[in-house]
Amino acid sequence: ARELFPGGREIFLIRDFRDMICSIHAYNARTNRVGFGREHVRTDEEFVLRIRQAAGQLLDAWRERGADALLVRYEDLIESPAPTLERILRYLDLEAGSGAAEAMLQRASEAGGGAERQHVTSPNVRASVGRWRRDLNERMQEICSDAFRDLLPEFGYS
To answer: Which of 34, 53, 140, 151 is the most exposed place for a label (fewest CB within 10 A)?
Structure first.
C-alpha cells in the first residue's frame, strides 16, 4: 500500500488483547456461534496462543513502520475521546483546533444508530476497558499473562 500511496498515513488501532478475548467470547456466546478464529482451535488456551501470534505480528509491523505511523489505543479513545481524536486529526494534517474533535464526537453521538449495538458485549463502553479482570477466571488470566507478557508493555499496557 505504501508503494501505491506514498503519501498515505497509517494508524494502528489496538486494544488490550485480554479485553479483546473477553469481547470475542461474550459475542460468540451472545450470538450462539463460534467466530473470530475461535472456530479453528479446540480450547480457549489455544485461542489465546492464536491471538498472541497475531499480536506478535502486529508488534512487528508497528516496529517496522511505527516511526511513520500513529498508534492509537482503544482505551484512549474511550477514556479521552476528544484529545485522542485531536491527535489523530493532527497526524492526518486535518483541522484539529476550534473544537473540531468535539464537534465530530457530537455529530457521531447524534448519528449513532443500531448498527453498532449488535456488536456491544458490555453494559457500556467504559465497562469494556479492563474487563479481563472481571470476566476471565484465574486460570485464563494466568494464560493471558504468560502469552502477552512481552507484548503488552510495548503497546503501553501493564
So the answer is: 53
